[in-house]
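Subgroup meeting minutes
Present: P.N., E.W., G.H.
Scribe: E.W.

1. P.N. recapped why we're keeping a running log of single-chain structure predictions: easier to compare across weeks, and new members can see raw inputs and outputs side by side.
2. G.H. added today's entry (202 aa).
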Amino acid sequence: MLDDKSGWRSLFLADIRVLIADQSPITRKIIRSSLRKLKVSIIQECVGGEQVLEFFDQDMGFNMLFLDAQLSDIDAQVILAKLHERDLIEHITIFLISSQLNPNDYRTFEALGVKHFLTRPFNATKFDREIAPIVRTMLNPDENQSIFCQEYRSEILELLESGTLKFCVDESKNLIVAEGEKNILCIQLNAFLQIAKLARKI
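Output recorded in log:
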């Protein structure tokens, strides 16, 4: 169960302030352009870990971070550990972008506060599928509608049936945060329950 100490509620109520830290100008452009289509306007960019830490030192109120796992100057794990030391992780939605991670990497980054994993190659279609629903929920937390796409239905059913779907509930926003192996979905609670009933898990 999530509570206010996690920063979850304040995250949903705040403006989205984004920092994109990626060495690829193409990836940065895709993320920037896609966010602007969603009416997110507070966006900063950088290409190195030192710059990430400098931005957070300026206390600009970032609550979303796109982080390249392979930054050249500072390892992503070190960056996240430093953000932990500053008690910032719990207030940030982090998307880790990588070419390839092994199971141990996933566990390590999850322990450091990463909930969203994006694999390269990265494109606008992947953004629309994996990121846009989360951003829309943050922008419109009180909309009484499901934000999951019909295409997720079979994926959710499969995960429920296999028992590998982890989820937690934010009662204040009537939301399920459902996490699979690589994707995380924010789903209206009533929609999730309907799908779960189909899988005969509740």
